[in-house]
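FORM 7B: Structural annotation worksheet

SECTION A. Query
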Amino acid sequence: MPGTKPHSPSSERNREPILAVLRRHFADRRRVLEIGSGTGQHAVHFAAALPHLVWQSADRAPYLPGIRAWLAEAGLPNTPEPRVLDVNDADWPEGPFDAVYSANTLHIMGWPEVERLFARLPQVVGEDAKLAIYGPFNYGGRFTSDSNAAFDARLRGDAAHMGIRDFEAVDALARAAGFTLVEDCAMPANNRCLVWRR
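SECTION B. Predicted structure
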């Protein structure tokens, strides 16, 4: 039905633990780019809780109507029109942003897309930018739980390019883009929230 808002139960469940991390790390930020806004639920929740931030949501074009529905209902002054962002395209939202946030995206994208995402970051962020990424990660090439191993198997069964990423490989991409890890925070359901700073 037109105008119906998409809904992700996991976004509802994980928003408060993520918000606790963002309160610490985004307290002095001004302009956030959210890569892969999905339903738009995180955008409205975090923008409402952190009104000092301009929260720029972005995702591939098919997701924008749902994001717009959430933003329109919330009517917040700090959520501009969502932007189209495909990491494979050259046209990204114009920076500079002093923070970037992304949740549950790296295991959906193919690894070459993950590489392109990190390689592009220096072109859209400022010198003192922070980067926060939420999701499941492997450490030392090993799953952190049986549930994550099962989740990875489901992902790879759906599409061969998907899968839980190794923390060390992602951190290497972040360091190549000029970021240094400042926190690796354990989250519910065997997820992590990783925060880097340039």
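SECTION C. Observations
The mean pLDDT is 95. The first strand starts at residue 31 and ends at 35.

SECTION D. Sign-off
Analyst initials: ____
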